[in-house]
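User: Could you check the structure of this?
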Amino acid sequence: MNQSSETTNQPDEEKPPLLQRLKNLIRPTPKTTEDMVAIVEAASENEVIDEDAKRIIAGALEVSEMHVRDIMIPRTQMVVLKAEDSLENNLQTIIDSAHSRYPVVGENIDEILGVLLAKDLLPLLFKNSLLAQQVETSSKIDNNLINDKNFILDLIRPTVFVPDSKRLNILLKQFREDRNHMALVINEYGTLAGLVTIEDVLEEIVGEIEDEHDVEDKHIRKLSQLNYIVNALTPIAKFNEYFDARFPDEDFSTIGGIVINKFGHLPQRNEYTSIDGFTFHVTRADNRRLHSLRMSVKSVDSTPDHSSDED
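Assistant: Sure, the predicted structure tokens are below.
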């Protein structure tokens, strides 16, 4: 009898407490990403989590919904090395752009031969340094090493290609498993669309990642001679001074205000517009404000020389 009674009462004991069931009716378990974002927003408003934690959680949720095409660097903005160029010319490109990885191309940008890590050049530079010392003590110089245009082919690593439709969370997992930091992006027609790095994916989660080169100026970061990352909160006066521009600051105080006004609405990621010779691509925005922009200028002649500031 006791066993029968216990068996009969067991289903009731497995039910959640009445208070918990009432809470579930009022606040059901989240079933979509939007539900989770709403919970995170509420937790932030109630000061359960701080703004940084909110941004990281929301970013991680958004990444699972985003594709490579949403954050990739377009092919027109890629900094590449040419296999046929000399060591001196390629070194100048590396110094100007200050990246750590570069796609290496053949006759044109669609002929991707591999990826060069800037650090892989160090042994070659050391060898050339010894060669320079030899110049001072001997007349027997190996000119082939100085003028060799095929040196880069011995240093490049295999290229990783990913489709532009690949989800970012899957790409991040692939980066981690393969211990790779860069991939070339191809579109549905099999042609080169751009490139993406692990840093691009992580910045969608934690925000802009600044390195030692970004300490001097948190508003403007130079990517190459023609391309920059610009914080939307950059004061117009600072932007004008840096780029010798003439944007008015009577109605707006930040460059983000100028860009939003040009759009006529709060832009979303990957929207772009041109203003007075500057092209602004939205790289990060939410439903409340604009965060960061990738900006390109028309020509080298219109860019400022801040080489002394970077030293």
